[in-house]
Amino acid sequence: MKRILIIEDDPIVGHIYKTRLEREGFEIEVCADGQAGFYRTHEFQPDAVLLDLMLPKMNGIDILKKLRAEPKFHRLPVVVFTNAYVPNMIQEAFSAGASQVFNKATLTPRQILDALLAAAEVAASGGSASSVPPEEAVPEDSSGQAEAAAYSPQQGPTAYSPPAEAAAYPSQADGAGSEPTLTSDDAGFQGELTQAFLESKHETLLTIRKSLQEFSRAQDDTARAPHLFELYRKVHALTGSSGIAGFTSIAQMASALEVLLKELHEKPKNINVSTLRTVAHSVDFISELFAANEPDPGQPPSSNILVVDDEILSRRAITYALEKAALKSVSVEDPTVALNLATETKYDLFFLDVQMPGMDGFELCTRIRSTALNRTTPIIFVTSLTDFKSRAKSSLSGGTDLLAKPFMFIELSVKALTHVLRGRLAQKKRAA
Hints:
The protein has helices at 11-23, 34-44, 60-68, 87-96, 109-124, 184-199, 201-217, 221-245, 248-266, 273-292, 312-324, 335-344, 361-368, 388-396, 409-431; strands at 3-7, 27-31, 48-52, 78-82, 100-103, 159-160, 305-308, 329-332, 349-352, 379-383, 401-404.
């Protein structure tokens, strides 16, 4: 393999991969949008393509489909990286012909190098570059959304396994998703990335906060749109750069937040007091993570969340949203049972409904605050009661935050991730 085409709209991420691969002797070209990347594939005739899925002008899925429709590109290795909080894109990527799919928030240059070399070997031996036949289907979950196998936004570093057996290309079970062995050159390069990331952190936060302020101050959807898109692009860039530099917690937060921002841009009717507050709190927490000033590579600790709601559909919706962030939870319908659990078990976070028989959420919150184990545990109310009186009562009872029903799944995921990671950061500070 000599030529690699990188199709990535973030110049920092593109430059990092270009630099690392050029050190290995490859000829590299970078395209900043999907349309340019598709046409350049025909002109450059690369031996492999490194493709981001969330691109301007033409997304990665469309590029894959167009390339695989041409016989000369049937065996072209295409290694994809994407946002793990958009699981349907992971499945679509495999179905469209991706050789392998990686979680951008936990991806390292070494993984990319190994994946490109492995894909090239498969293509050279006459095997198919695609892990999964395009017609292969994945069973739908109870919510009606297709899931890619081994989906987990928080595991790291991650290579997603294809959703069906495929001997043509090594899957995660064969070690593709295991921790890579770093050479001295890798370690030195990783140190350079960490240092560069830290040196640019003040400018990064400044530009994100400026975009957030402009978005928040805008008076209507038309005025908000360009500022929201600019904020999305900056957070999108942060996902890739922080992941490559080994700042996993920042990458996890940015990864979830960018999907929330993308959905708000596509569906501006969902912009309200709740979503604005969630975005602002997330940016504030990213600032806290930056202040830690050191990388935290690897998989974040598992979570323990209790969901309390007497309505089964509401419980399922909350646990589903938590699963999207790979956050472990237990759900109960009886507030009395929940109080007993809170007395016996330390949790990272509670989600409480307000209107429940026997004991409402406000009373349950007050009682949880009287327990030894969960006196300071974050408590989020998920309720249709969003008037001023209810918000005041949620605060007086000891609640940390409030989320209005109906809620966006990704907003709940972002809120939960913020509180869980903040708790881990606090534990780390206390232990230091």
